[in-house]
Task: structure prediction
Amino acid sequence: MSDTHEGNAPSPDELPQPEVRKSKLGFSLIWLVPIVAALVGISLLVSHALSAGPQITVTFLTAEGIEAGKTQVKYKNVVIGKVTTMRLSKDRTHISVVIDLEKDAKAFATKGTRYWVVRPRIGASGVSGIDTLLSGAFIGADAGDSEEDQADFTGLETPPAVTHGAPGRRFVLHSSDLGSLDIGSPVYYRRIQVGRIFSYELDKDGKGVSLQLFIDGPNDRFVSKDARFWNASGVDVSLGADGLKLNTQSIATVIAGGVAFQSAPGPHDETPADEMAEFTLFNDQQTALAPPDGKPLYIRMTFQHSLRGLAPDAPVEFLGVKVGRVVSVNLDYDPVNKTFPVVVGALVYPQRLGKADEKLRAAVGGNEEQQMPRILHGMVDHGLRAQARTGNLLTGQLYIAIDFDKKAPKVAFNESTKPLEVPTMAGDFDHLQEQISSIVDKVEKIPFDSIGKNLDGSLQELHGTLKQVNGELLPEAKKTLQGVNKTVGTANDALSEDSPLQQNIANTLEELQRTVRSVGALTDYLGRHPEALLRGRGADAPPKVILPSTPKQGKDVQP
Amino acid sequence: MNAPPRAVDMGIMSCHVCRLVTAYTDDKHAHCPRCGSPLHGRKHASVSRSWALLLAAAMFYIPANIFPIMRTQSLSSKDDNTILSGIIELWRAGSPGLAVIVFTASIIVPMLKFIIMGYLLVSVQRSSDMVARQRSKLYRFVELIGYWSMLDVFVVAILSALVHFKILSRVEPLPGVVYFGIVVVLTMLAAMSFDPRLIWDKRKSQ
Result:
C-alpha cells in the first residue's frame, strides 16, 4: 500500500499532505437556511396561533346541508368561521358541529349568540336563502349581548326573526291559544307591517300561550302603555246594519296569520311601553278596542220556561248594551211547585256601563262590596227584569236581555245573597206565543159554518137572478140594439149626399138666393124712385123685375 | 481487506468539470488550471451543508402538508385541498391510479429522501463501514428520484394556468404549494451537497 502511494506521488514536497477534514461543528453560512426555515415555520405557527379563534360546538337536529371542513359560518354574510368536524350525539338525537371561529370572531363564542343553518326556505311570508341553492348551506350567526364565554350552543332550527342590535323593542303577548300565528307572523300598525312574532311558548301552567314580538324602530314608539293587540289572522266577516263587511289586514295574514295593534280609543296613556311589556292578545279588533271590563259580577237568573238556544257565551245585554256573557245554563228542581226551573249564571261587567256605573255608585254610596247589590236592588224595584230573547230567528239563538218593565209584578230582592239573583220574566217570544194563541182562540170562536151556509144561499139566489137576466133581459136588449141600429142607418141614409132631402135643401137655398137678389133690385129701385111707393112704377119702361115668388115679398113690391 | 488507494493518499485530485488531475491541495480557493472551476478533494463542508438543507427541507415539509395547495372553485362549491386531502379525493373520485402516482411523488419520495439522506449523513459522521456499496446506491437513487417530487408543483401550476373559466370553475394555487416546492428544491440541494465519496473515506480510520 505504501508502495503505490510513494510511486504515484508527483512531488510530495510541493503539495501539502492530503487530509480529510472531519465535518465541522462550527458555524457555517449554510446553517442560515434551516434557521430561515425554522423562522418561517415558527412565524407560521405563531400567526396561526394568533389567528386561531375559539372553538365552539353547536348542536343541531339535523346535519342537512352541513359539510365538515367546508360549511362556513357567516355573520352578516361575512365568514367568521368554518365547520371542522361533525359527530352524532351519544343518544343519537342530534348532531354536534364543531366550529373553528376566526380570531376576530371571538365575540361569537359568548352567551346569547345564536346559530342556525341557512337553507333555502319557502314560506307563506316569503322566500329566503335562495343563494344557498348554489353555494350550499351555511351556518348563520347572530351575536348576543353577553360578555360571558360559552363554548356549547344549541342551534336554532329556524332563522331568528330578529337579529341582534336591530333597532326596536320586544313585547310579550298573552293569549289563550296560538291561533294561526307562527314565528315570523307580521305585526301591523294601521295596516303597515312594523314587526313580527319571533317566538312563542306555552305558559308554565299550560293555560295560555306567551308570544314574543318585535316591533322595528322607530315604529316601536307607537306601542303605548295602553296599546291593544288583536289577532288579525284570516278574514273577518261581519254582517251589520250597514251591510256585509269583509275585513282583512293583508293577503299575507289570511295565509300566515298576523297581529295588529292600536292605541285604545279615547284618552289614554301615550307614553311608549317598556321593553318586554306584557299585553293581552284579543281575538278581534272589536274586543280589543272595547273599554276595559273591570271586575266582573256574577249574577244568577232562574227561568221558569225552556231556554232552548241559550248557550254559554251568549251575550247579556242591558238596554241593548252588551254588558256580559252567560257562563252556565243548568237545570234545577223545585220540589214545592214540582217544576224544573233553568238556572242561568252570567258574568256582567258593570264598568261597561261607563258613566252610568260611576254615577250609580256615587249615588248609592257605601263601600265597593255593598254598592253593586244596592244598585241592583234599586233597579229591581224599578222593574229590572231579565228576559231570554231570541237573537237570531233562523237559528233560535237566545240571549239574555236585562230591561226595565214597569208593569212587572213586584218581587223581593235580597242584597245579601251570593250570587245576586236577578228576577226574570217570560221571554218576549213566549209573550208572542200567548198573543198568537189568544188570537187563535178568537178566530176559533167565529161561526164559520153558519157564515158558510148563509153565503151558500145568497150565492144560489144570485145564480137564479143571473139565469133570469141571461134568459130574458138579454134578448130584449138585443132587439133594442137592433132598432137603434136601424134608426141610425136611416139617419145615415137621410144625410147622404144624394138623398132627396139634400137636393131639396139645395133647391130651397137656390130659391132663397134668387129672392134675396130680387129684394136687392127692389131696394135699388126704391132708392132711386122712392115715389114709386106711392105712384107706382113710372112710364118709362123700367128694367123688368122678376117678381119674387114669396108672397111676402110680392105683397111688399106690388103696392 | 485490501481496498484500493484513494487519490488523496496519492497526493492528487481531479477537477469535477474537466476531469484534469492536479496535485492535491487543501486550499479552499484552489482553481482548476485548465477550466478555472473550483478544486477540492472533497466537497467543502459537505456534511454540514447537507444537514442544514435537509433540516430546512424537513421544516418546510410541515407547512407544505398542513396548508392547502390548491383551491378548486366551481359554481356550486369551493374546495381547498391539501396534498393528502387531494389524494384522498382523487381516490374517492375513482382514479386510484392517479392517486397512487401523486401519493408516491408527493409523500413517499420526499419521505424517502429525508430518511435516506439522514441515514447517509449519520453513517458518514459515525464513520460507519457497513454496506458502503449499498449506501452509494441509495445515494444515486435519491439523486434520481429527487426531481419527480416536483410533479405536484407542476400539476398545480398547469391547472391554475389552464382552468380559468371565471365563475364556472377556477383553480388557484395556495401557499402550501410554495412550501412544497421549497421542500423539493432543498432536498435536491441537500443531495447535491452530499459528497458520496465520504461514504468510502472513513475506512482509513479503521
Remarks:
- Chain A has twelve helices and 25 strands.
- The longest helix of chain A spans residues 448-494.
- Residues 189 and 261 of chain A are 6 Å apart (CA to CA).
- The longest strand of chain A covers residues 78-88.
